Amino acid sequence: MLTLLLIVLAVIGLLVVMRREAGATPALAVLAVLGVIGLVVDAPVIGILLLIGAAAIAITGLPALRRKWLTPRLFAVFKKVAPKVSDTERTALEAGTVSWDGELFSGKPQWNKLLNFKDDGLRDDEQAFLDNQCAKAAGMCNAWDIAQERADLPQKLWDYLKKEGFFGMIIPKEYGGLGFSAKAQSMVLQKLSANETLMVTVGVPNSLGPGELLLKYGTQTQKDHYLPRLADGREIPCFGLTGPRAGSDATSLPDTGIVCKQTIDGKDVVGVRLNFEKRWITLAPIATVVGLAFRLFDPENLLGDEEDRGITLALIPRDTDGMEIGRRHHPIGSPFMNGPIKGNDVFVPLETIIGGEKMIGEGWRMLVECLSIGRCITLPSGATGTARYALGWSGGFTRVRRQFNVPVAEMEGVQEPLARMASLGYISQATVYQTANLIDHGEKPAVPSAILKSQLTEFQRDILADAMDVHGGKAVTLGPRNYLGIGYSANPVAITVEGANIMTRNLMIFGQGAIRCHPYVLDELAAKDANDIKGFDKAFFGHAGLIFGNAARAFTHGLGLGKQSTPFDRPAHVYAQDIARLSAGFGLCADAAMASLGSALKKREMLSARLGDVLSNLYLASMVLKQWQAGDKVEGEEALLHYSCRFLLQRAEQAFVEIFDNLPNRALGKILKVIVMPTGRRWNRPHDNLARDIAKRVSTHSALRTKLLNNTWDKDDGDERNPLARYNALLLDYDRAEGLYRTLNKAYAKGELPQTALHPEQRVEAGLEKGLINEEDATFMRDFEKEVLEMLTVDDFAYDAFANDKSTLINHNSEPSTTIPAAAAEANVK
């Protein structure tokens, strides 16, 4: 009995020490004291074993002892097995900052660090721009006209975008720009997502491109010349990075620049002779100035002794001799301006290099530093805006679309996707807004940018698929009335650009985060490179303490012991505690994967992707809790909080299970499963009751629907009719209409109305005649049904409308001889 008691006390004591990462001395003390007690109370075997354990901890854990024999051996092994980090990888790792993502990697997230990023909202000028200029711009768009008729935005809209400074949101006011915060930029792009082409056209110049590069790295002369012209639209920029052989692997640029001299106006000018071929360059067909990434070489050593000067960026006017520009690609579903750029022996002076000579070779660093912000905003904001519009349209449509005498929104098969759409949109809004808030506080979130880009565009894909499903024939029939189909077909663009989601999920999120966000790995690698054994000892044994700490935290939290206190209120508290539990498990699994696979983990992309999935879902859930804590709650929002957090935590646990099942070291996988999930999985898919409640609220005029659609274009005040405003108006009147539907349908079922009154309009007139409703009600229903029918109607076209070459048109109802095109008939005669 005494032996068992001492063992239990030793385990508890060590778990407490490990959870607190208190170090070797407290652990040694626990075992030594219990060992002495064992000897005193006549339990010599366990006492001796505990003292042996204490001695082992002293030899391996106390710095003064371990540095004499253990650390040198570990350092030698580490230098052999540690992965080599290339210069380009190191540049990417050092780009940006580490914030909440680092807390999640630590396994012991401190929630106050996240909550301390206060949100001051939008400035008055930002909100006014959102309410007025953005609404005006959105109101000039008709998706069918833009995509099918003109393959461009209307000239009137282009002029308005330039006049109102849409292309200068990131440019400071002193250069004529709007100087908007990251939150304001995000909200603008969300509102403009009423039309995909409009959002992309405005988003790209305010994301990764010449404007941001000039702001951060340009010479003062370059800033003074270009920034005012970019701000007011006199210059339209594009940025040439990707090409036929350099897409996701942008560091393998085959485009070259050779430093040389050329005689201009009788003077020898030192410059660069460029040869390049770029593809998929947004705004290229209409750009007036081209940002260009290329590999610079100096074979004649005109600039110094080094021949390969590295990736360099330049800014080249459109009319430069030798540059071919103006042709277009045809992006799927959306005719935003995109095309190739080629250059053959294009000579430019050194002054065109962004930042001048001092920034030669710094191009990759410049790009990845800018990308950490731009990738957090543009596509994630577009995906979030699309989610909001799709939800608004879908909720309205499913409420006014009736089948079997009930709105289809009352059918559970429709309620399930409606609730899912609402949840994914809610998660997206919280994540993109709160991450933008981090940026406004000076953070440059490199790893979260990969999370947001991949996760939110995948959400967009799921939301649009659900929206298409619940709309049915309304959405699959293209035409001016179809507000959904063209955007749905354009979704693969968001999935592919700015780092294809396959690459981002499998390589970037965990691959970059494992080193960049880990509390110790970067220090260990730095110590290796500097041959700093003392620095290695500190980092390595700190790392070891973290591993033991995460194991203890994950296991005890999994058993429901010693749960973390959190600053959240009742609904959010339990989710914050479980994020902390899973964060500890994630930290442990990340270290286990890196230790067991070493550099081979780079090639285990499916495993890396699942580790990234855990981090992504924990990050998204954290942003939802931050938004909940900071924002004003409305009726019904708590159900959406529960649905969203359970959805994300269920996905995180599923990723854990797949990690355990697929670790090459099967014993390690089983051990991790016991530590991280000692009682099994905790989270199932959200309950049906939550789905029913959410679906009803988003398909009726409710406080929750209003909040989710806040700051979208929801007024019918534009040049084009606004389907969201029309659905909102119908929902305002829906309760009255539903009561009249019930009265008339009940009377019809009883035989009180003629059996030929099959249409709602016929039943209204028959009900009026029978005195079941009065003239006021009849007038109301006539107007209501007229608008409903308009929203349900799809377009049709002339038979020959889709044939670009009318001579190939076949008249299937004519005599066979007339089906032969004229040219072929003439050939047959000859």
TrEMBL record:
Q: Which reaction does it catalyse?
A: a long-chain 2,3-saturated fatty acyl-CoA + oxidized [electron-transfer flavoprotein] + H(+) = a long-chain (2E)-enoyl-CoA + reduced [electron-transfer flavoprotein]; a medium-chain 2,3-saturated fatty acyl-CoA + oxidized [electron-transfer flavoprotein] + H(+) = a medium-chain (2E)-enoyl-CoA + reduced [electron-transfer flavoprotein]
* Gene3D superfamilies referenced in this protein's UniProt entry, alphabetically: Acyl-CoA dehydrogenase/oxidase, N-terminal domain, Butyryl-CoA Dehydrogenase, subunit A, domain 2, Butyryl-CoA Dehydrogenase, subunit A, domain 3
Listed A to Z, the keywords are: FAD, Flavoprotein, Membrane, Oxidoreductase, Transmembrane, Transmembrane helix
Q: What is its EC number?
A: 1.3.8.7, 1.3.8.8
Residues forming the Acyl-CoA oxidase/dehydrogenase middle domain are 238-337
Q: Where is the Acyl-CoA dehydrogenase C-terminal bacterial-type domain?
A: 515-797
What residue intervals traverse the membrane? 45-65
Q: In which pathway does it act?
A: Lipid metabolism; fatty acid beta-oxidation
Cofactor(s) annotated in UniProt: FAD
Q: Which residues form the Acyl-CoA dehydrogenase/oxidase N-terminal domain?
A: 122-233
Q: Which PANTHER family match?
A: ACYL-COENZYME A DEHYDROGENASE, MEDIUM-CHAIN SPECIFIC ACYL-COA DEHYDROGENASE, MITOCHONDRIAL-RELATED
- What protein name is recorded for this chain? Acyl-coenzyme A dehydrogenase
